[in-house]
Design brief:
CATH topology of chain B: Rossmann fold
Radius of gyration of chain A: 26 Å
Distance between the termini of chain B: 29 Å
Number of helices of chain B: 5
Strand content of chain B: 15-25%
CATH topology of the largest domain in chain A: Arc Repressor Mutant, subunit A
CATH architecture of the largest domain in chain A: Orthogonal Bundle
Oligomer: heterodimer
Shape of chain B: globular
Number of strands of chain A: 2
Number of strands of chain B: 6
Order of helices and strands of chain A: HEEHHHHHHHHH
Helix content of chain B: 40-55%
């Protein structure tokens, strides 16, 4: 015997979601097509459970996958820039694609869609952020910093620094120093408490 | 993707400037939630009221009656509840020493008010997308200085 079925896929999916989430005691609201709004905070374990149950019915949590990939891309970039041994020698786009295990084109579009910026801009921003940190630490010269962050020259680093922040590296250094100077002039109770301890330790030694 | 909007507050006494700012912000890709106040006194009243939404970024005009931008900047930076608040100065002054002074006092961004609407849109778009990165990527705002 052959039965011919007619079904409403949205109705079916909505019913599965309603039954399963109610079983798990999760309150939610139906959003637009393929979108639900969870009304309470989900612990990672609970989210994992929901993901698995829905996966069983062929329902995938897309958004979360996308934001996880974006986050992973960001992590790879940061790790690459904060690596003590310098940046990878291979092409950066293929390095990122390899590490995240997706094509660079896909990541590039996903990133732009979700972060209001491009991977390229994000890399520049993180490099300048790192450069700021290194300038503040004051142990490396600008030449050494530009080498460490794979700039072809100090001029290139300075140019990109100025383009990104609107300030030259030396103006930046002066501002942060003066800012810290102003902190030290504050009354004692407003000072971060750990500043004075190291110097007093040295004196007792 | 349901990104959380960036809460923005503008304090400016000039009605036209507020209007253009709002127009420009509406055209920026970043999702935003804008509140407008007329001067520094209103701004501080807004920030001190715990029922109001905490802004992520405050745009401050420097020359305002009653309480100016610099005064607000100093007051906000002295308050530890607002240590993560981004402060963008939004002013017509373009002297390097003014700019540096506001940075030293704790401003994160300095914007010279552009005359052209298109330029304003571009500038705000740049500022907000960078701010959004700082907001979502946990970057160190103490090092965040940007002059446009």
């Amino acid at each position: 015997m052959k039965l011919y079925l007619k079904y409403d896929i949205h109705h079916a999916v909505n019913t599965i979601i309603r039954e399963k989430l109610t079983e798990l005691n999760i309150s939610y609201e139906q959003g637009g097509l393929g979108e639900i709004d969870i009304l309470s905070e989900l612990s990672p374990e609970k989210l994992q459970e929901v993901t698995e149950i829905l996966n069983y019915y062929g329902i995938e949590i897309v958004d979360n996958m996308k934001s996880t990939l974006v986050q992973k891309t960001k992590d790879v970039i940061r790790e690459m820039i904060y690596n003590e041994d310098g940046l990878p020698t291979s092409k950066i786009s293929s390095y990122i694609a390899d590490r995240v295990n997706r094509s660079y084109g896909y990541l590039h579009n996903l990133f732009a869609e979700n972060t209001y910026t491009s991977i390229g801009n994000y890399i520049i921003m993180q490099k300048i952020e790192r450069a700021k940190q290194l300038i503040m630490e004051g142990e490396l010269t600008l030449t050494e910093i530009s080498y460490k962050l794979s700039y072809s020259s100090v001029a290139h680093l300075s140019y990109q620094f100025k383009k990104t922040t609107g300030l030259t590296p030396s103006a930046f250094q002066r501002i942060i120093k003066r800012r810290r100077g102003e902190i030290e002039n504050l009354p004692d109770k407003l000072k971060p408490s750990n500043i004075t301890t190291s110097s007093s330790l040295n004196e007792t030694n | 993707m349901p990104n959380k909007p960036l809460n923005i507050l503008l304090a400016d006494d000039d009605e036209d400037d507020r209007f253009f700012f709002k127009e420009a912000i509406d055209k920026v890709k970043v999702k935003t939630n804008l509140t407008l106040v007329n001067d520094g006194v209103e701004l501080m009243r807004y920030l001190y009221n715990p029922e109001n939404i905490k802004p992520h970024v405050v745009f401050l005009d420097l020359n305002m009656p009653r309480k100016g931008g610099i005064e607000c900047l100093e007051e906000i930076r002295a308050n530890k509840d607002y240590k993560d608040l981004m402060i963008a100065i939004y002013s017509t002054s373009a002297s390097d020493s003014d700019i540096e002074e506001t940075f030293v006092k704790g401003a994160n961004v300095y914007i010279r008010k552009p005359n052209d609407f298109k330029v304003l849109r571009k500038v705000l778009s740049d500022v907000l997308s960078i701010n959004w990165q700082y907001h979502t990527s946990g970057l160190n705002i103490e090092h965040f200085v940007l002059s446009i």
